[in-house]
Amino acid sequence: AQSVTQPDIHITVSEGASLELRCNYSYGATPYLFWYVQSPGQGLQLLLKYFSGDTLVQGIKGFEAEFKRSQSSFNLRKPSVHWSDAAEYFCAVGLNTGTASKLTFGTGTRLQVTL
Amino acid sequence: NAGVTQTPKFQVLKTGQSMTLQCAQDMNHEYMSWYRQDPGMGLRLIHYSVGAGITDQGEVPNGYNVSRSTTEDFPLRLLSAAPSQTSVYFCASRPTGRRNEQYFGPGTRLTVT
After folding, report:
1. Nearest CA to CA, how far is A108 from chain B (Å)?
2. CA of B6 to nearest chain A CA: how many angstroms apart?
3. Strand, coil or helix: what is A3?
4. Burial B61-85 (b: 16+ CB within 10 A, else e)
5. Cα–Cα distance between A38 and A47 in angstroms, integer?
6. If 0-12 CB within 10 Å is exposed, 13-18 middle and 19+ buried, where does residue A114 land?
7. Which of residues 20-79 of A touch B (CB under 8 A)?
8. Which of A44-53, A87-96, B22-31, B98-107 has the lowest average pLDDT?
9. Do B104 and A44 touch (CB under 8 A)?
């Protein structure tokens, strides 16, 4: 069964600093990979996704992520964090075949941004 | 488009009570699913549906029932609420042919006392 690990429960960065959130997955085939963001009291919003092709994917709000098959990783990055980026971030992996289309989520990383 | 809507936003139940969490989408998505979110555990899949009349169990289905009589609606029923079902519940839907890019509703915060 697939699994997702987000090793950092909580990260604090200063506004304007760079950000990298880690995500490692376990899955036998080429995965579909996603990053979602959840602001307090809100639902989840898709930031970006990787299905195939170029391993560096661009998302909304200036985020990007790089798929590294050799490291089973899909880390999320942003060059300069804004205070409005404070939220919880979830990495997820999806089945690559069939129609069941189930997502497995990591436990999330809460980002705090200091001014 | 309203997207994915959920009602109610908040609910408090007593142990043993039953209730239905409503979920509707107006995007004509075939696939819909229910997740629960608990601190430190991410989101876990409860039930999902690949189309009207078809449902299946996810990772944590016990204590919950679902049905899908129309494409638009996917209600989640708690038959006899337990404190362990205190959680935030999210409904999601996905368009056909775009695997796994799911759109989430705003959530229902349920407390069982």
Report:
1. 6
2. 11
3. strand
4. beebebbbeebbebbbebeebeeeb
5. 10
6. exposed
7. 32, 34, 36, 42-46, 49, 51
8. B98-107
9. yes
